[in-house]
Amino acid sequence: MRYDLVIFDNDGVLVDSEPISNRHLAAYLTELGHPTSYEDSIRDYMGSAMHRIHELVLARTGQRLPADFDSTFHSRVFDAFRRELEPVAGVRTVLEKLRADNIPFCIASSGSHERIRVALRKTGLYELFGEEHIFSSEDVGRGKPAPDLFLHAAERMGVAPPHCAVIEDSPLGVQAAVAAEMDVYGFTAMTPADKLAAAQALFSDMAELPRLLASTHK
Questions:
Q1: CB 3.0–4.6 Å: which of 132, 148, 169, 198 could bond 187 by disulfide?
Q2: Mean pLDDT of all residues in the chain?
Q3: CA atoms 163, 169, 174, 177: torsion sign
């Protein structure tokens, strides 16, 4: 391994949450009078911090979402997570290999701190991270595609950006990693490969990731 830190997105990379959260987001926006299909939600909002959802709806419709939108949405999604959420296939093996090889890793997610912890605890991955290795868009002024969150995570972990690898499944996350001058690996299990074309390399199965991290660093 040639990297000093591996930074993981959470939703869709560590936990298989994107189908659940985007299904509920589409339904809730539609309920509020903003017709949104599941496919629309994946295309427009996957990988976004909550503020970006508000901004896009306002820009498109001229209407603001309700003041309690975030809390209501999170309540619905968290309830679904506790019933349905599973880890991404193979990701525990990847994390355990990194730990065995003494390669530090952390999370940098657009989700809230509460969302990250609900997901990690339900899937049994929390024990592999711990509090000091979890970073959220709530920690910085701008979420993805700005580089702020990845730069914040690297600084807190004590690693220079060029020595970091980012694992992402959203176009916004790939943009953020590139802007942070980090190598980024695009996970295409749910996202079309062409949407992640700016990544260092693409992969569709977590079993491929250790080899990529060891072989494709510039």
A1: 169
A2: 95
A3: negative
CA 3 to chain centre: 20
Give the separation between CA 185 and CA 45, rounded to whole angstroms. 20
Query: Whole-angstrom Cα distance, residue 68 to residue 149?
Result: 25
**Residue 50 tokens, joined:** 């909550």
CA dist 148 to 78, 83, 133, Å?
26, 33, 16
Edge-to-edge, what's the strand order for the sheet holding 183-187? 134-136, 105-109, 5-8, 164-168, 183-187, 201-203
Among candidate residues 49, 60, 1, the one with its CA nearest the CA of residue 217 = 1
Helix (H, G, I), strand (E, B) or coil at 88: coil
150/148 Cα distance (integer angstroms):
6
Q: Read off the pLDDT of residues 153-174 as tens digits, 9 standing for 90 and up.
A: 999 999 999 999 999 999 999 9
Give tens-digit pLDDT for 29-56.
999 999 999 999 999 998 788 999 999 9
Peptide bond between residue 145 and the one before it cis (omega within 30 degrees of 0): yes
127 contacts: CB under 8 Å, gap ≥ 6: none
Q: Measured in whole angstroms, how far is the alpha carbon of residue 107 from the centre of its chain?
A: 8
Please give the structure tokens belonging to residue 81: 């997570």
- The per-residue pLDDT for 216 is 60
Rounded to two decimals, what is the model's pTM? 0.87
